[in-house]
């Protein structure tokens, strides 16, 4: 049995402008000791699913459907009180901006101690001792002195290490890292990722890394979900996603990663267009307005996440025929511009499309 | 930290000196009123005015006058004598100060209690009927002139003239010193306290509400929740701790201004405090008293600024070393 | 005399601000009676509402001894030194604590009785010498403790000329003493004390009868020279502002060792306490019954609040004038606790007799005829606290009846309270305007004062000028500015001053007419002859300082007239001449409203402005 099994999760926020379909029927699972990467642009709903896990979307009046089975219990159905016991204890979370995520008026040590004292009966002195240990564990030098400092006295990387220390305070079974490195510079990013990876090995916890940057999860994720407009559009192992990506959106994400092995003059290609509104989502395939290969039929037909033939464990929600996708990806890898490959999509028979979409 | 405090104190002294210069300029140089004439009584001869002018030192050059004035003020806290009653301004101020302090401290406690409580409830129950109702009532209180509110309170509830008299609310003019009779002191101040507090409580409720709503949207509140903290603790410890900081700044200045004299409340309830002293002095063109009370008010504000700055540094560790 | 009058005029202008609360229209009061048009206060004097109690015929004996009276007053005192005080509120403390030589008892506003004096004065030498014997055995309060002598009275008056004391009415009334006009605090040659209990005043003219009234003013209360002289050397004096010796039945609570009362019996702006004078001897036959044990005075508070406290509370009186709102409330709901004492002041519209269209007597008569005086009285608070004026000597003053009483002298321009345009046009025609309307080119200047209800009163006065065909330049300014820059400055050449008023110093009409209409009293600034009546004898006229006009000659004669009834007749004649000359348009005989709690038997001083006299008042 998986540590966490998310089944057909839907999260809708009622607002004055209309319903926001933040998460629209996603499913994934993660086993103990494994790492799952959830990748997508901001506004793709990738953070909402994990916030929902901790019950933090309830506070804003979200309507939640589906199941999130954690160790046999459905987090969606759990009472606030029970959920609070899971929160920060079995499941811990670290956030994007470590400066704004730590309380500016409390000492780092105090915030760590508080995290421990909520969930376990531990004396102040013991908690303090453990806080020092935790800071040492996450690689903060001189932890005995640092424990009495305020967040603003820490550098960005150290703050994130402190956040991680706080998340680890109660030895969680699942650590959710929401954009853990986005606010940090590149060298520090690598250190933090290495730290997470190292801690996982030593503590044996599962990790969900939420990021907009496929590069971040390249090294450490076992499995990757690519999300777009509240849905999972592609899922597979890291190997599958990086070597035989199936979805045009994933191609776009891959193209926008700076590669150490890439040519110096290679341009980073961001995906053109903007993420869609989650209130009025595009009809058919939600990605069609931004997809260079979209056909007329794609505006009507809503693709489902389906297994990729001949590649077990790899799924994609795309209306293009598998051979077409194969050809386009090959051309793209060879350095072709997406615009020059549009004819490849056009030439495919509508029958394939309708078969996929029916 | 110590250097920070010393810097603030020095700056405060500079400010006070500026205020002294300005009040000196306003009250000694600007008006066309010769203080000697005001002191001389009703039928002064030219000779008498000259003598008084000499006694007052106002026949000397301006800079000498200012030096003498400064010397008296700093060495003896001598603010001169009332033109009207010839009483020493210093003794008048010390005589009136307890009433003003009593009024201010009680009012501040009441308004902070209600302001913060209502603000928190409104922020937590944001957009509910309760929130809308309390904010509506507070808007009404914010807009109500204190003097009018005081009159209404007296006409409705005062023990002596109220339509629905409540005997523990002693009426206007009943102020008794705390040391004379603590019970009478309390009962004479209940209505003024609530009147003084009403407007400010409403303002503070809105301030606390807005500030708390902003804070509750901060990332570190999400962190606190993600840690598994109970909501109560999230609001009162993590939320309020940040939300109250800007309130402290305003509170410091408001308190200082009130200590400088709550003219309207003191007038309507006939409390012999600094505000009424100042008001009466203005009515009678009694410049030494006006000057004394203005200096006192400035002193309170400068001191409050320093206290607020130090308190702010204490509350928000980020400002300590800047 | 001239500089003296100047002083008096200046003081009068100040009094116009604070003393004549009703007369000048107390600021901050609701002007509800005018706008609400409430039927109860509208003026149809014949079938009008029940008149308020006016204090006439009050019983001043048979009270009960004991108890504490609480006084609430919005205003503070000005001077508690008998040598300086010249303010009705101050008098409420001065008279119970100081023994003046003579006194107007509460039930008689026109003749004095002996107070510190043992008997009425002996006036000899045709009115040029006034001899007063004082009582034996009267003692000063601690720390002086010794018997009062005639030298103490002499010093009290002499110090009035001391610049550090600067008594405001000394020049007007005490310069009649030989040598007084040159005095500056030292002995005055015209005052002698042949023995410990006798004081003799030698006057410069036959002013004895008038001077007798001046000896009822606070300046005549004894001051112990040994105690006060060092204090009087201070600028200004510390006697009466910090230290004091009292002789009345009460004293301002003070330190018995030093006589210091400031901070003890008087906290400026806060409170005052009158206690029984331990050295008061009730067996000397002094007139004050002194029923009360103590009087606590609380200073400050909103007039509408303290008024209600008095009406609804117990053992309370209002020390100063209640607001119009309270007056209405008291009159309607607390009739028995309310008094409106006639003779508080007079209000009139001053018309420029010297320059401009109003220099023509017929234009002045036309203006008076056109003026809706009833509307002005209504705006000022209605007939509860006022009555339409018909002449200048106001009710309660000697000579009022002789001058015509309520109806006034028989002239057609004072007969119509609401104004009468037919009469007005008749006089305009006599003035040389055949159409009955002004056809000249002059734009007349009308300056009124701010502070309700003065601007509304001024607007009615302005309306009368417009009705006569004048173009007006109408302004309202702060009251001190109105007196100090416009109406009190002849050179400003203001044509119409609608918001001026006057209060007598005692019931002798000289104190009412002399400062306000004598041409020889006109001064260049702080003038109180706002009409510049008899301007020919003023500084810009052909005979400065002399009495040449018929009215001025009559006034000079009246000043020196001896005997109460002769004086009343002489001044009544002056009043009639002033009406015949229409020197100004009188519109309000102001009444002084007073309120008390139901269990207080307040006794009112009818001779001054109708204040409570605490030396007579008792608790029921």
Task: Provide an overview of this structure.
The complex is a heterotrimer of chains A (358), B (322) and C (620). Among the domains of chain A are: 91-171, no CATH class; 249-357, no CATH class. Chain A is built from 14 helices and twelve strands. Chain A has helices at residues 46-53, 80-86, 98-101, 108-119, 124-137, 143-146, 156-168, 186-203, 214-220, 238-243, 248-255, 322-333, 342-346, 350-357; strands spanning 4-15, 18-30, 35-39, 63-70, 73-74, 91-94, 174-178, 206-211, 223-228, 231-237, 306-307, 315-316. In chain A, strands 6-7-8-3-9-10-12-11 form an eight-stranded mixed beta sheet, sandwiched between helices. Chain A has a four-stranded antiparallel beta sheet with strand order 2-1-4-5, with helices on one face. In chain A, helix 7 (156-168) packs parallel to helix 8. Chain A is globular, with a radius of gyration of 22 Å. Chain B has a domain at 91-315: MetI-like (MetI-like fold, Orthogonal Bundle), CATH 1.10.3720. Chain B has 322 residues and is mostly helical. With 620 residues, chain C is α+β, with helices and mostly antiparallel strands. Chain C has helices at 2-18, 32-36, 88-97, 150-158, 170-174, 208-214, 225-232, 303-312, 324-333, 361-370, 373-380, 421-430, 454-467, 479-487, 510-517, 550-559, 564-580; strands at 68-73, 102-103, 113-114, 122-124, 129-133, 191-195, 198-202, 250-252, 266-267, 271-276, 294-299, 316-318, 338-351, 386-388, 443-449, 471-477, 496-502, 584-595, 600-601, 618-619. The longest helix of chain C has 17 residues, at 2-18. Chain A binds chain B through residues 54, 56, 59, 84-89, 92-93, 95, 97, 100-106, 114-115, 118-119, 150, 152, 163, 166, and chain B through 218-220, 222-230, 238, 241-242, 245, 315-318.
Question: Which terms would index this structure?
Answer:
heterotrimer, A: alpha/beta, 4-stranded antiparallel sheet, B: 322 residues, mainly alpha, MetI-like fold, 13 helices, flat
Shape of chain B: flat
Contiguous low-pLDDT stretches of chain B (5 residues minimum) are none
Helical content class of chain B = over 70%
What is the quaternary state of this protein? heterotrimer
As a percent range, the share of helical residues of chain A equals 25-40%
Largest interface, with Cβ-Cβ < 8 Å? B-C, 35 and 39 residues
The secondary-structure class of chain A comes to alpha/beta
Question: Strand tally of chain B, please?
Answer: 0
**Strand line-up of the largest beta sheet of chain A:** 6-7-8-3-9-10-12-11
| Pattern of helices and strands of chain B | HHHHHHHHHHHHH
- Fraction of residues in β-strands of chain A: 15-25%
Q: How many H/I helical runs of chain B? A: 13
Cα distance spanning the termini of chain A: 32 Å
The biggest beta sheet of chain B reads:
none
**Which structural class do you get from the secondary structure elements of chain B?**
mainly alpha
Mean pLDDT of chain B: 85
Number of helices of chain A: 14
Give average pLDDT of chain A, whole number. 86
């Amino acid at each position: 049995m998986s540590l966490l099994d998310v089944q057909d999760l839907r999260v809708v926020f009622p607002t004055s402008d209309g319903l926001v379909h933040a998460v629209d029927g996603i499913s994934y699972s993660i086993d103990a000791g494994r790492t799952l990467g959830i990748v997508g642009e901001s506004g793709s709903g990738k953070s909402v699913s994990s916030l929902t896990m901790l019950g933090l979307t309830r506070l804003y009046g979200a309507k939640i459907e589906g199941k999130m089975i954690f160790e046999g219990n459905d987090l969606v159905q759990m009472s606030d009180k029970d959920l609070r016991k899971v929160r920060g204890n079995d499941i811990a979370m670290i956030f994007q901006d470590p400066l704004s995520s730590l309380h500016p008026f409390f000492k780092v040590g105090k915030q760590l101690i508080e995290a421990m004292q909520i969930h376990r009966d531990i004396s102040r002195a013991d908690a303090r001792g453990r806080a020092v240990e935790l800071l040492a564990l996450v690689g903060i030098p001189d932890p005995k002195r640092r424990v009495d400092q305020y967040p603003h006295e820490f550098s960005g990387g150290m703050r994130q290490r402190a956040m991680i220390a706080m998340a680890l305070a109660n030895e969680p079974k699942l650590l959710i890292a929401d954009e853990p490195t986005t606010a940090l510079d590149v060298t520090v990013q690598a250190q933090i990722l290495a730290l997470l990876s190292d801690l996982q090995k030593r503590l044996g916890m599962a990790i969900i890394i939420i990021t907009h940057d496929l590069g971040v999860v390249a090294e450490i994720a076992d499995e990757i979900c690519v999300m777009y407009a509240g849905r999972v559009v592609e899922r597979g192992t890291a190997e599958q996603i990086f070597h035989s990506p199936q979805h045009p959106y994933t191609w776009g994400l891959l193209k926008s990663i700076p590669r150490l092995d890439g040519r110096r003059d290679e341009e980073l290609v961001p995906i053109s267009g903007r993420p869609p509104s989650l209130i009025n989502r595009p009809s058919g395939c939600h990605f069609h307005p931004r997809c260079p290969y979209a056909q007329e039929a794609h505006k009507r037909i809503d693709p489902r996440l389906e297994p990729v033939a001949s590649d077990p464990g790899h799924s994609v929600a795309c209306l293009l025929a598998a051979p077409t996708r194969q050809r386009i990806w090959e051309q793209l890898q060879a350095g072709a511009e997406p615009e020059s490959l549009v004819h490849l999509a056009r030439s495919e028979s509508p029958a394939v499309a309708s078969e996929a979409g029916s | 930290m110590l250097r920070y405090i010393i810097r603030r104190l020095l700056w405060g002294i500079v400010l006070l000196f500026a205020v002294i210069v300005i009040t000196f300029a306003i009250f000694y140089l600007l008006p066309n009123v010769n203080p000697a004439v005001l002191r001389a009584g009703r039928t002064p001869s030219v000779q008498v005015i000259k003598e008084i002018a000499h006694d007052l030192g106002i026949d000397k050059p301006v800079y000498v006058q200012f030096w003498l004035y400064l010397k008296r003020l700093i060495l003896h806290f001598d603010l001169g004598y009332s033109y009207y009653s010839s009483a020493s301004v210093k003794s008048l101020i010390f005589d009136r100060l307890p009433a003003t302090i009593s009024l201010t401290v009680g009012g501040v406690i009441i308004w902070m209690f209600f302001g913060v409580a209502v603000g928190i409830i409104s922020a937590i129950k944001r957009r509910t009927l309760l929130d809308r109702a309390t904010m509506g009532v507070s808007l009404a209180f914010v807009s109500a002139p204190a003097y009018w509110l005081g009159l209404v309170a007296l006409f409705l509830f005062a023990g002596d003239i109220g339509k629905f008299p409540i005997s523990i609310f002693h009426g206007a003019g009943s102020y008794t010193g705390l040391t004379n009779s603590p019970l009478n002191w309390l009962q004479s101040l209940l209505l003024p306290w609530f009147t003084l507090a009403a407007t400010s409580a409403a303002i503070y409720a809105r301030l606390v509400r807005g500030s708390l709503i902003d804070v509750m949207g901060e990332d570190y509140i999400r962190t606190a929740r993600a840690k598994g903290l109970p909501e109560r603790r999230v609001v009162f410890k993590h939320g309020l701790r940040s939300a109250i900081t800007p309130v402290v700044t305003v509170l410091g200045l408001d308190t200082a201004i009130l200590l400088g004299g709550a003219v309207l409340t003191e007038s309507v309830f006939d409390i012999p405090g600094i505000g009424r002293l100042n008001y009466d002095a203005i009515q009678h063109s009694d410049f030494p008293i006006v000057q004394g009370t203005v200096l006192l008010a400035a002193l309170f504000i400068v001191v409050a600024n320093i206290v607020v700055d130090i308190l702010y540094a204490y509350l928000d560790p980020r400002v300590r070393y800047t | 005399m001239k500089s003296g009058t100047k002083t008096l005029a200046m003081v009068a202008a100040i009094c116009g601000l604070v003393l004549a609360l009703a007369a000048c229209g107390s600021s901050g009061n609701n002007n509800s009676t005018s706008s609400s048009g409430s039927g109860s206060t509208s003026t149809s004097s014949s079938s009008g509402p029940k008149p308020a109690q006016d204090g006439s015929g009050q019983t001043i004996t048979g009270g009960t001894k004991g108890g504490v009276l609480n006084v609430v007053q919005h205003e503070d005192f000005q001077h508690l030194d008998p040598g300086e005080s010249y303010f009705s509120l101050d008098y409420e403390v001065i008279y119970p604590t100081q023994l003046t030589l003579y006194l107007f008892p509460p039930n008689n506003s026109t003749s004095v009785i002996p107070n510190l004096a043992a008997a009425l004065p002996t006036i000899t030498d045709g009115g040029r010498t006034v001899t007063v014997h004082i009582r034996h055995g009267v003692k000063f309060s601690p720390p002086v403790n010794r018997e009062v002598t005639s030298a103490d009275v002499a010093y009290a008056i002499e110090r009035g000329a001391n610049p550090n004391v600067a008594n405001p009415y000394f020049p007007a009334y005490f310069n009649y003493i030989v040598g007084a006009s040159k005095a500056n605090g030292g002995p005055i040659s015209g005052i002698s004390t042949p023995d410990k209990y006798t004081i003799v005043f030698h006057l410069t003219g036959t002013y004895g009868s008038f001077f007798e009234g001046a000896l009822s003013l606070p300046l005549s209360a004894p001051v112990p020279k040994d105690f006060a002289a060092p204090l009087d050397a201070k600028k200004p004096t510390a006697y009466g502002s910090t230290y004091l010796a009292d002789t009345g039945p009460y004293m301002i609570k003070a330190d018995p060792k030093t006589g210091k009362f400031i901070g003890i019996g008087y906290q400026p702006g806060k409170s005052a306490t009158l206690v029984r004078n331990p050295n008061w001897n009730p067996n000397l036959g002094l007139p004050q019954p002194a029923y009360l044990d103590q009087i606590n005075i609380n200073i400050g508070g909103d007039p509408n609040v303290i008024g209600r406290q008095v009406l609804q509370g117990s053992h309370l009186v209002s020390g100063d004038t209640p607001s119009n709102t309270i007056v209405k409330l008291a009159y309607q709901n607390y009739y028995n606790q309310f008094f409106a004492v006639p003779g508080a002041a007079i209000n009139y519209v001053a018309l420029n007799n010297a320059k401009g269209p109003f220099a023509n007597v017929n234009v002045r008569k036309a203006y008076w005829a056109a003026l809706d005086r009833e509307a002005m009285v209504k705006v000022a608070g209605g007939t509860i606290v006022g009555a339409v004026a018909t002449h200048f000597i106001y009710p309660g003053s000697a000579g009022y009846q002789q001058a015509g009483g309520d109806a006034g002298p028989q002239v057609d321009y004072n007969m119509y309270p609401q104004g009468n345009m037919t009469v007005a046009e008749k006089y305009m025609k006599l003035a040389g305007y055949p159409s009955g309307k002004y056809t000249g080119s002059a734009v007349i200047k009308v300056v009124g004062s701010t502070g309700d209800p003065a601007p509304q009163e001024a607007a009615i006065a302005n309306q009368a000028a417009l009705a006569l065909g004048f173009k007006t330049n109408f302004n309202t300014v702060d009251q001190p500015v109105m007196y100090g820059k416009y109406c009190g400055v002849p050179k400003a050449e203001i044509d119409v001053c609608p918001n001026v008023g006057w209060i007598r110093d005692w019931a002798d009409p000289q104190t009412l007419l002399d400062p306000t209409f004598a041409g020889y009293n006109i001064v260049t600034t702080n003038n109180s002859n706002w009409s510049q009546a008899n301007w020919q004898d003023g500084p810009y006229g052909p005979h400065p300082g002399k009495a040449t006009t018929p009215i001025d000659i009559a006034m000079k004669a009246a000043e020196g007239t001896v005997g109460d009834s002769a004086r009343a007749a002489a001044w009544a004649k002056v009043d009639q001449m002033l009406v015949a000359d229409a020197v100004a348009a009188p519109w309000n005989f102001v009444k002084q409203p007073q309120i008390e709690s139901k269990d207080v038997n307040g006794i009112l001083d009818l001779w001054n402005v109708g204040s409570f006299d605490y030396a007579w008042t008792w608790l029921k």
